[in-house]
Amino acid sequence: MSNFLDFVSKQVLLLDGAMGTQIQGATLEVEKDYWGQENCSEILNLSRPDFIRDVHMKYFAAGSDAVETNTFGGSILTLGEFGLEDKTLEINRRACELAHEAIAEFAHDGRKRFVVGAIGPGTKLPSLGHVGYDALEESFVLQCEGLIAGRADCFLIETSQDPLQVKAAVNACKIAMKKTGVTLPIMVQVTVETTGTLLVGSDIAAAATVIHALGVDSMGLNCATGPQEMADHVRWISSNWPRLISVLPNAGLPELHNGHVHFPLGPDEMARWLERFLKEDGINIIGGCCGTNENHITAINAMLERQDGAKKRPAPVARKHHWVPSVASLFQQVELRQENAILAIGERCNANGSKKFRLAQDSEDWDTCVDMAKEQQREGSHTLDICTAFVGRNEIHDMTEMVSRTRGTITAPLVIDSTELIVLEAALKLYGGKAIINSINFEDGEKPAHQRMELAMKYGAAVIALTIDEEGMAKDVDRKLAIAHRLHDFCCKGYGMPSSDLMIDPLTFTICTGNEDDRKLGVWTLDAIERIHRELPDIQIILGLSNISFGLNPAARHVLNSVYLDHAIKRGLTGAIIHVSKITPLHKIPAHEVSAAEDLIYDRRESEAA
Ligand code: THG
Ligand 1, atom 23: nearest CA belongs to which residue? Predict the structure, then answer.
């Protein structure tokens, strides 16, 4: 384990106060200190190393265990706004060195101190289309390499306003670590505005769902508000998030005093709030954001030293938390296991599943396509399957249209349905939520499945996995079960994906062909659901329901689909790709119709004749 994680797992860590507050309080000259670029604080790492080092020393003197490097705007894109993109590596490396030099000044007391590599969001929001995913990720990679070169002890992706930006930054950290062979902890902090969401509209649960799927070490909050406004969100993280937690509030909500921004919370009030979070919410890392200075840190340090006796950091307070396996749109979290219901995946935004969608897509009538998504959401679909595979059209182009047009309006998480790797990746690069990839299988061996799992882990997605292998689609129960186990080993043991994010689809075939060989396919799938559910209780089990009734008239399909779904749910099905408004509860279907459907499903011919 890294020194940093080792420290934080045993004791509360005190971070520093704001860098900006210190810079604003100083008299710095635009030409001499900022090289003519006022607003670019990162220049000070090169132009005024003495000043930045002094700020770090002030915070260490006040009791900080760690300081954040002066690299908030240190990505290629953000430095590029000042024509400084060529200095990205140098600025980030130098910033870390300055923090280490400050630590060296305190070496005599033998205390452990850390350098936290700060990564701000930049000025562009990918979910709003200000910047593309690839450019953003690349822009952070060099910053991360600089932070590694300067021997940062961890990455802190902070003041995050858009979960898609977090994905780019986290992946940049991972790329830089791979390039350099250095492994560091990754921490993420989001910024919840007074509206109760991130700037792009994500609530705390949506943000946490996305961040959790990226496999980072810590999640927290900083900026935008004071501790009071953060309290509900801190409570949510405390009772849900399974890993480390950080909280760095502003010194209250900013007020304007004669044209000057003023932060109202004094050191003692701030320390009291953080003490409450420590005791009630069991958080691990505290500090301050805008408006906090060394006096706040002094007060917080004194508060910490009161807890467990002089000069000792208290251990984090134990907390009860329960992580609920979920997916998310940009806006909200949707639980993969619905209470007393299945996860309804709307089937209609599919070129092959709806004539209306196909026609609208073919005439690029995207408004109609998006309206179909909205309608399914209104009808109760929890998530929406999106498939734009249509002969003669460009699938990437059409998927890009659909994801770009739904990501900011549809609150149901998306299920990206494509056999093409490049289409899946194009969609995931656009999506700030936690999507579901539909699907993987072993039809062509393991390589395509590996490629799709790599996407799922990189972009943080759940996965639908079909029971198909090199020998083809599994029809009988034993093969479905064997492939389900192989998929589970492959995804969960092989990639560390949580079992709850794996959604096995044991395949639905039409039982209405009249072929003797097809009559048992429905009941075999039901039996397979039961056995998979018994042997792999934590995974999800889903079906593309409507396939069961291909070939029947619409009224009969409606009944057969509803009856089959009911039976599948009783066997352990947790989700289904369906047309929600065409599913009827069994008690509302005439009994003789239900029993005719059951005869078909269970291949009972005697009663058919009767
Ligand atoms: N498993 C997984 N994904 C899947 C499937 C599956 N994706 C596609 C498909 N199968 C599930 N989706 C649909 C969507 C529509 C229909 C069937 C399956 C359907 N549509 C009507 C028809 O074609 O007659 C409606 C036509 C219309 O409205 O024009 O039946 O199994 N993982």
Answer: 353
Going from the Cα of 175 to the center of ligand 1, the distance in angstroms, rounded, reads: 38
Segment 49-59 shows an average pLDDT of 98
Residue nearest to atom 17 of ligand 1 (CA): 546
CA 608, distance to chain mean position in Å, is: 51
Place of tokens 């079992």: 499
Q: For position 608, what pLDDT does the model report?
A: 47
- What stretches of 150-219 show up as alpha helix (H) in DSSP? 163-180, 204-213
Q: Which residue has the tokens 């409606």?
A: 558
The pTM score is: 0.97
Distance 334 CA to ligand 1 centre (A): 22
Give the C-alpha distances (Å, rounded to integers) separating 299 from 62, 65, 72, 288.
Answer: 8, 14, 25, 11
**How do beta strands 343-346 and 114-119 pair?**
unpaired
**Beta sheet of 244-248, edge-to-edge order:** 13-14, 285-286, 244-248, 218-222, 186-190, 154-160, 114-119, 66-68
Task: Give me the residue label for tokens 């909050």.
Answer: 221
Ligand 1 atom closest to Cα of 350? 14
Q: How confident is the model at residue 380 (pLDDT cuts 50, 70, 90)?
A: very high
> Which domains, and CATH codes, for the chain?
22-240 (3.20.20.330), 324-434 (3.20.20.20), 474-610 (3.20.20.20)
Most ligand 1 atoms within 8 A of CB, residue of 343, 347, 466, 548 to mutate = 347
* Residue 499: cis peptide before it, omega within 30 degrees of 0: no
Distances (CA, A) of 110 to 37, 104, 306: 39, 10, 21
Calculate the alpha carbon distances from 453 to 323, 426, 434, 576 in Å: 22, 15, 14, 21
Q: How far is the CA of 477 from the centre of ligand 1 (A)?
A: 23
Residue nearest to atom 31 of ligand 1 (CA): 544
The CA 496 to ligand 1 mean position distance, Å, reads: 31
Q: Which residues line ligand 1 (CB under 6 A)?
A: 347, 350, 353-356, 385, 417, 438-439, 464, 505, 508, 544, 546-547, 577
* Confidence at 606, pLDDT banded by 50, 70, 90: low
pLDDT digits (tens, 9 = 90+) for 509-547: 999 888 988 999 999 999 999 999 999 999 999 999 999
C-alpha 424 – ligand 1 centre gap (Å): 19
Tell me the percentage of the chain whose pLDDT exceeds 70.
99
The residues, any chain, with a CB within 8 Å of residue 414's CB and separated by 6 or more, are: 329, 383, 384, 386, 403, 406, 407, 427, 431, 433, 435, 436
The alpha carbon of 376 and the centre of ligand 1 are apart by a number of angstroms equal to 14
> Which residue CA neighbors atom 21 of ligand 1 most closely?
353
Question: Which conformational region is residue 77 in: left (phi greater than 0), alpha (psi within -120 to 50 degrees), or beta?
Answer: alpha
